[in-house]
Design a protein that fits this description.
- The protein has about 325 residues and is an alpha/beta fold.
- It is built from eleven helices and 15 strands.
- The protein has a seven-stranded mixed beta sheet, with helices on both faces. The protein has a three-stranded antiparallel beta sheet with strand order 1-2-3, with helices on one face.
- Helix 5 crosses helix 6.
- The structure holds 5-S-methyl-1-O-phosphono-5-thio-D-ribulose.
- 5-S-methyl-1-O-phosphono-5-thio-D-ribulose binds next to helix 2 and strand 9.
Length: about 325
Amino acid sequence: MKEFRTLRYEPGKLTLLDQTKLPREETYVDLTTVEAVARAIETMVVRGAPAIGITAAFGIALAQRTGVPLAEADARLRRTRPTAVNLFYALDRMARAAAKNADLDAEAQAIYDEDVAASKKIGEYGAALIPDGASVLTHCNAGALATAELGTALSVIRAAHAAGKKLRVYADETRPMLQGARLTAWELMRDGIDVTLIPDVALGHLLYEQAIDLAIVGADRIATNGDVANKIGTRSVACLLYTHGRPFYVAAPWSTIDRTIATGRQIPIEERAAEEVTTLGGVRIAPDGVRVRNPAFDVTPAAWIAGIITERGCTGKDLARGLTEQASNTDESAR
Ligand code: MRU
């Protein structure tokens, strides 16, 4: 089976796997300008918090090569998607590197390489939480398609599978953009991991049948108290797991933790176009003129989360304390 690469860079050219076309077509697009990079993030050719941050970092490297003022490139990229803090983490790092006249290709590549290492560690720490024989629900796509490689929630699943644990993964479809149906199912099937696709609305019934032991998802931004913003629908998943007495875990690199905010209330939630809700596969499914709300993320309260797994370890149920402990093991390069 041919390996896929979510993103790869050679000086002057960023190549992205076009995620809007998956799973029907596996096509790659070459980008050479910061404007093309910004549009690819907005239209979700590339998506997933860590992948968005890494892509933006390469966008800054491309801006420098094409003579676009870096402040202008930075401002353009900051306007693409507001929720994933990894975007701002990567742009802040690139701005610091530019201020020191550092090599911007090398700095962006370092952000990429650190994400690969973080995903690997998250898998190692998280696998211990997955019992042999478990049925695991995941929401949206927190896989290799959302990061440089491996993923966050899917890195945990991959590591547990590689350790010989027998798992059944349930991927919910994740309306309205269907990242679960289109991307997570595709990624796991390519790896030969047992995956079953369910409609979002079936989760309550599966819990009633006791078919699900735990859930693990990614994150777009995590507040100091452990509140987590992730793909719309995550809050409903967490609430259902919590009320059925099943653990709900979050896996994310340290670049997803926003230590500047106290709670999830301070997280900006992206609202996207109405057409994502009123059409399905390009076909209109709702009456013309209907009023639509399309928030792309929601916030899950820390109280419903059993633990957060980062490359620095797993928190216990007291997420705020666990994150503070992890913050103090900082090697400065990580933040
Ligand atoms: O709108 P998307 O597809 O960018 O949203 C992605 C998610 O919500 C993921 O769960 C999150 O970014 C974590 S990815 C490791």
